[in-house]
Design brief:
The protein is built from 10 helices and no strands. It is mostly helical.
């Protein structure tokens, strides 16, 4: 049950976020969302007009603050090195730490799974909304990684950034899997511990020797 001071719009967003994270975008119906939020379908149509717009709103309320935190951290990282190449690990931390810190907030674990689903689930509207909202930070971070790795070919850089984002998404979405397959030896509950392990892994991949590609 919701407290009386929670707005109808927030009830819908909270319920949609939780259900999308648990069941996926395609498997979650508007009927399920309205039932969970204890509102009628007219309320969803009034605030969001469609399921696609609701998906976008769910992402927007989380990604907007997340983008600001990442860009602020990146700005501090770049200012610390002035005109020289930024520290690679610090650029990675600027990108990753705000996401991991988000897990400490109410509904943080669900939001992490929600983000992970955009890579694991073939939902066109969800992916479109997610990547459109992430475009704000795409160029600044690509430029920062390029400066931190000046000897890396542009194509290799883009591939490695793609792999790195995948590692982060899996870390967010698969925290429970890690606990199970490790028999409880590994848990992603300590933000700083997870962050430093992730930074070390991603930095090693970004700095790795070029792949030996077979050309036909």
């Amino acid at each position: 049950m919701y407290e009386s001071n929670v707005s109808t719009k927030d009830k819908i967003l909270d319920s949609a976020e939780s259900l999308f994270a648990e069941h996926g975008f395609e498997a979650t119906s508007l009927r399920a969302i309205t039932s969970s939020a204890d509102v009628n379908l007219a309320a969803v149509n009034y605030h969001f007009r469609s399921k696609d717009e609701l998906i976008r709103a769910v992402f927007a309320r989380r990604i907007g603050p997340l983008n600001r935190s990442r860009l602020e951290a990146l700005k501090s990282c770049l200012e610390a090195t002035e005109d020289g190449p930024p520290d690679l690990e610090e650029v990675i931390r600027a990108f990753v730490r705000p996401v991991l810190l988000m897990r400490r907030e109410p509904h943080g674990a669900a939001v992490g799974r929600l983000f992970g689903r955009t890579y694991a689930e073939p939902s066109g509207p969800a992916r479109q909304a997610f990547f459109e909202l992430m475009r704000e930070i795409s160029k600044p971070f690509t430029d920062a990684f390029r400066r931190a790795l000046p000897g890396l070919d542009q194509i290799d850089l883009l591939w490695r950034m793609h792999f790195s984002v995948g590692v982060m998404a899996h870390t967010l979405a698969g925290a429970e899997h890690l606990k199970v397959i490790s028999g409880g030896q590994c848990e992603a509950t300590d933000v700083e511990d997870t962050l430093e392990r992730l930074v070390a892994f991603v930095a090693a991949g970004l700095r790795a020797a070029p792949a030996k590609l077979k050309r036909s």
